[in-house]
Fold this protein.
Amino acid sequence: MNTRGLRQFASFAAIGIVNTAIYYAVYVTVNLWTPYLAAHVAGYAVAVSASFLLNSYITLRIKPTWRGFARYPLSGAVNVVASGLMLHVSVRALGMDEHLAALGAGLLATPLSFLVARWAITAGRAPAPPATGTIRARVHERQR
């Protein structure tokens, strides 16, 4: 992965931490007035929406689209399935402690989740022009 990809991945991971706090804050607040499962759904909906917007604007630096928003939950689904499979293999086949295996599986599934999230947000878009002032930008201008 190149420097840009590493920066994006680090941003994605940091936003994941912020997103967890958003989920929990909404969950706790809504749970004051509604049953816990309703609070969970509300927290999840707000957190996924916030994650999509933050990753669009901050991580990938592009304007979000409704099409990207519709695809974005796939990254969460991929994370749940991949981490679940890794958790199962770690506990059943490798004999790892369930708690450590859950942490490890979550960490190992994050890069795959990042790739799916990046695809969901950016699929179907024209590539962005190179940054101003770079050699690629000057070549790009000459080619126009």
